[in-house]
Design a protein that fits this description.
The protein is mainly α. It is built from 13 helices and six strands. The strands form three sheets. A two-stranded parallel sheet has the order 1-2. Strands 3-4 form a two-stranded antiparallel ribbon. This is Ribosomal protein S35, mitochondrial.
């Protein structure tokens, strides 16, 4: 009967069938076979399985020639310049109409945050001052506040990634005091209103002047305005815009019933983000050639007036909220309970039961605060 091989001597399952032999010679054979197998396995393959040569087309040869020549310059970007083929803000040479939008520099972001939070300037004034859209100004303030909170908590920021991005894309820098300020983006784009989607053919008599106010009423399905009132609004358009945007924005005329009730569509002069710029442009074209200093003075006064009106509106809203809120703070407690009387009726909840005038609209709506992929950035900053 053949001698059995001990288990501790077999170190490779790929060994051939072994005949009976002394244990010492078997150990030497096993060790030699294992070491040679590891050596051969660590060597890279010298030949591929396929013997077909890769096809070299003309376009492929030109691409390789370009990558070795002019294309090698784009392997590492130059700090402060875009790493595009055209070295401009056009990333695609075949599409000159597509341009890469710039981003705000760190200095400009910090200055915007300082103007809003420390100097208590309005978002509208900062938007006009630096040529940045009001929505972007609000987003910058929220993000900088979030960064400051992360620094206080000892969390790390992705600063190397931010520096690399700022070196490879167009950047709008903070202008020097004597330097002419360059606009970052258009700040007075007119948003498309849902009421203007349909195409309407509205007959008008030749003796009547049809303006933007009338067009807004037609789109809103509102009755035509009385001629006497319409002429008074047309006589002083600047005062009309001021009254709409500053004095009574909440008292805009409404049409419809129930859930179909909506405000009458305002003219484009009042719906743009910065209506005061229209008045400034009128003054610049009329008296700007002879009295440019007066035009600038009126512009600053108009901005200050809008800022004061906005602050007064916020104070009145806060006072109304405090009047209808009952605060209760138990003794020796760090919590304060606030109670507000609400009215739940058909008028407040609407047909669906989720009207914005009653708390019933929140019932049955899931909270997405802890769901993945949802933005956790604060929506506003109290300054």
């Amino acid at each position: 009967m053949a001698q059995r091989i001990p288990n501790h001597l077999v170190s490779n399952s790929l060994l051939p069938y072994l005949s009976s032999s002394p244990s010492t010679s078997l150990f030497r054979l096993t060790t030699a076979y294992t070491s040679s197998s590891l050596t051969n396995a660590s060597r890279p393959a010298s030949r591929s399985f396929s013997t077909t040569r890769p096809s070299q087309t003309k376009l492929r040869r030109e691409m390789i020639r370009w990558l070795r020549g002019k294309g090698s310059e784009l392997q590492h970007h130059i700090p402060g310049e875009t790493n595009y083929l055209t070295h401009t803000n056009k990333p695609f040479p075949g599409n000159p109409l597509y341009r890469s939008d710039p981003i705000l520099s760190e200095d400009l972001r910090n200055e915007i945050h300082h103007q809003v939070t420390v100097q208590n300037k309005s978002v509208r004034a900062v938007s006009v001052q630096y040529g940045v859209d009001m929505r972007r100004v609000a987003a910058v303030v929220r993000l900088v506040e979030l960064e400051n909170q992360m620094k206080e908590q000892g969390k790390s920021l992705a600063l190397p990634y931010a520096r690399a991005i700022h070196e490879m894309v167009p950047v709008t820098h903070l202008p020097e005091p004597e330097e002419k300020r360059k606009s970052h983006e258009t700040i007075n784009d007119l948003p498309v209103h849902r009421l203007t989607d349909p195409q309407i053919f509205y007959p008008v008599s030749e003796s009547r002047q049809f303006n933007r106010i009338d067009a807004g009423r037609v789109f809103s399905a509102a009755p035509a305005m009385i001629n006497k009132h319409a002429k008074r609004l047309e006589a002083n358009p600047d005062e009309t815009i001021r009254r709409i945007t500053q004095e009574s924005p909440a008292n805009i005329e409404k049409v419809g019933k129930g859930d179909e009730e909506h405000q009458v569509l305002l003219p484009a002069d009042a719906r743009i983000p910065h209506p005061h710029m229209i008045t400034h442009e009128r003054n610049r074209l009329t008296i700007g050639k002879t009295e440019p200093a007066e035009v600038r003075q009126k512009y600053r006064e108009r901005l200050e007036q809008e800022t004061q009106v906005e602050l007064q509106r916020k104070e009145r809203a806060q006072q109304r909220l405090e009047m209808i809120t009952q605060k209760v703070q138990p003794e020796n407690s760090r919590f304060e309970f606030r109670f507000t009387d609400v009215v739940v009726s058909r008028e407040t909840t609407g047909l669906t039961g989720r009207g914005h005038k009653a708390p019933g609209r929140r019932y049955g709506v899931p909270s997405y605060d802890r769901k993945k992929g949802q933005a956790k950035i604060p929506s506003r900053v109290e300054v």
